[in-house]
Amino acid sequence: MIQLLPKPLTGSGPFILLITACLMNCTSTKELMPMTESDILAFHQQILTIDTHVDTPLRLKYEGIDLSQHHDPHAYNSKLDFPRMAQGGLDAVFFAIWTPQGARTDSGHSAIKRHALEMLDLTESTINNLPQFAEIATNSQDASRLHEEGKHAIYLGLENGYPIGTDLQNIDLFYKRGIRYITLCHMTNNDICDSSNDTTEYAGLSPFGVELIKRMNQLGMMVDISHTSEATVAQAVAISRAPVIASHSCSKALRDSPRNLSDSLLTSIAAKGGVVQMCLLSDYITPDPPQDVRDSARAALKQKWKGIDRHTAANREAYRLEWSELNRNYPRELPSVSDAVDHIDHMVNLVGIDHVGIGTDFDGGAALSDCYDVSELPNITIELFKRGYSKSDIRKIWSGNLLRVFAEVERVASAQ
Ligand SMILES: [Zn+2]
Whole-angstrom Cα distance, residue 313 to residue 17? Predict the structure, then answer.
């Protein structure tokens, strides 16, 4: 079992944190506010916290993880279960129903739609069989309601719109099944839009993608622009009648990854009232320090499985296992919570406190040296206090901003 707080911030014993000035140019945090570590942990446990992106359904499917049991993340390929959510004060979470991408044909679309529905069945039955721990949540009020009832809220998102195919009716089907955001694409283009990791096909959204966003607005589903190309983000922000979210993305100014958001896109998302949820995936936070042997092994593996998103399911699984083994053999030095919170600082300085949240990507590859799984999430709150964020700021980051956007998406849908 790992320690909840492996790195005391100051000296030995309980530390006193004096917040004497606000680093963010906001008046709310200019008061002198002594906080002990136990004060901060108690505050973290008391507030409503939401993580907008974890890939736990994959761990249910491939490792058969029992969410009612505590797992050591170093022994199991698992970063989230209910005992560790309680330990880390994580109240609500969006489980991503992620789908790999195959052929963009009718048969490819039907096969992946079946797969997504099976993943939904598995997730739904898992949660419904553990009613003492959690419930499936479907609206912006459920997180608070379930928090008060002492249960975790499990929201559902669809990561990759590929299972929608080219049929708008599938959006309604997934909405009925509880999906409340759709990440428009993953690492390759689909029939909706261009991906940030693929070549230009539509120069943004396809005509079908435009219709998809209109339908999502009508139903009250959040449009998630993580993984999409810059042109797609700009067009989605312009077309959507409700604010958009980035369920798991960081700042491109701090880490130049195609998956991160430029200052101009962060500004336009915020200008329309949206929110960007900072991701804890190492490669989006700091550059991977070069390691010759590992880098050439990675290059060889990528060459061997070139165009993997278009391979068969069996090949994609073989690639996933080989990639995991390579990373086990050549682990990278993990960034820290401080490195991650640099991204929050940058975004807050750029667009203000109302447009930033947290979407970890745990169970999808995320890990920090001092926040390795959900049990260590309080370390983020400690770092935020250390940097001068107020309690009100931290509440916004942990859930207030996302719930404001979610409620606005619902309001736009109901105002048709
Ligand atoms: Zn992702």
Answer: 51
Q: What is the overall mean pLDDT for the chain?
A: 91
Find the 226 Cα to ligand 1 centroid distance in Å. 7
Residue 105 and residue 64 in contact, taking contact as beta carbons nearer than 8 Å:
no
CA atoms within 13 A on the CB side of 8: 10
Q: Give me ligand 1 centre to Cα 227, in Å.
A: 7
Q: What is the pLDDT of residues 209-233, one digit of tens each?
A: 999 999 999 999 999 999 999 999 9
Q: How far is the CA of 404 from the centre of ligand 1 (A)?
A: 23
Q: Which DSSP letter does residue 168 get? A: T
* CA of residue 20 to ligand 1 center, whole Å: 38
Q: Which of 239, 244, 119 is nearest to 179 (CA)?
A: 119
* First vs last C-alpha separation in the chain: 51
pTM higher than 0.70 for the full model?
A: yes
Give 185 Cα–ligand 1 centroid separation in angstroms. Answer: 9
Quote the ligand 1 centre to 187 CA distance (angstroms).
8
* Assigned fold of 34-289+336-414: TIM Barrel (3.20.20)
Q: Do the Cβ atoms of 128 and 156 come closer than 8 Å?
A: no
Question: Domain extents for the chain?
Answer: 34-289+336-414, 291-331
Cα–Cα dist 49/55, whole Å? 17
